[in-house]
Amino acid sequence: MKIVFLDAATIGDDLTYESLLILLILFYVVLTIYNIRSVKKYDNLILPNTFIEHIDFSNYSFEDSKKSSDNPDAGGRTLEIDIHDLNQKDKDAKANFANAFNDIKESLDGYFQDCVNSIKRLKNSIPEVDFYLPIRDYNTIDELFKKLTDNNKSFKMDYTNRVLTTLPHSAYLRIAEGCDNKCAYCAIPLIRGKFKSRDFDSLIEETKVLVEKGAKEITLIAQDTTRYGTDFKDTDPRRLQHLLRSISEIEGVEWVRVLYLYPDEITPEILEEIKNNNKVAKYFDIPIQHASNKMLKAMNRRGSKELIKEHIKYIRNYIPDAIIRTTVITGFPTETEDDFKELLDLVDDVKFERLGCFTFSDEEDTASYDMYPKVNSRTATRRYKEIMKKQEKISLEYNKSLIGKTYNCIIDDYDFDKFAYVG
Q1: Which residues make Cβ contacts (< 8 Å) with residue 409, sequence separation at least 6?
Q2: Does the first or last residue of the chain, that is N or C, have fewer Cβ atoms within 10 Å of its Cβ?
């Protein structure tokens, strides 16, 4: 069977979510009526390209082409997943087909349901808004405006035409959207969808525009920056280390900084680039969230306390002047005093140069929302204060160690009351 995904333009602008649902329902009816063993062939199932990013094809081979094999003039991107010929009587082949179809069905069901539920909730809570646009549809925002304004003018989404909300000499560069980590406390995958890297060349062009506007420091952000480019598969071998190198080579860029590094995804190649590139800040923003292995498992975080300590030790040995920042959470459901003590001990042992702490907050529709027992808010706040009190001492000692040393910095402002520059 082949399941073909086409751009919306290829199959017509009138194809709506409702019509797709009808198409899927009909397809399910066919599967119900006919036994898989006796069906010789199914017709191709055609869906818009938008849905590709919401289905995990990691276990199935596929081919990517720019033209539909049935209609070479149609344009748009086509993915053909050749699962198996249903004439085969091999049980493994049938099972593979069934598993593949179920994966697609569940992904699409979840996609539709998330869209419907999210928009319904938003409409109920903020009825004054006339129209809601999912993040995944930003690239077609020009089509929405054409419909709303009844105007033929088209203004496509353009990352190079941004409104900067930071100081002019420092700018953030979002290199990816969404997240696949599914941490139990986090709603970002529900809000922003699956992880999707931005096009490499578009990031370089956007950086050049930011530099023209006066930016000297470029800070790369994403929900998981270390994963940048891994979803390109074989279409583009460039990863985070290549992006760091290319951005640093742009004339006018003085500093490049990376935020939100997932501990177990910091590769030797990334470390080597950070170490050897003079324009890349030796600053590692690595949220660990907790130290208790029991809590890390409950949070659906990969790794363990031992691996966290090992990673940090390796970074500091490899890059002696590395600055490591982290964030931790207190009051996560089921956290006991013993769990908290493990966290407190790790903070004392590792001595992060920078640390932020947050008390747990229930997020609707996340896995942790239904976890019990909950930790009393007073207990969570007390633990938060203990962490920050310990970190204050650690930070003070670290800051004292810098006295007498000289560093390059970018000046943000001047404090006339203290007669001092702020940078």
Answers
A1: 423
A2: C
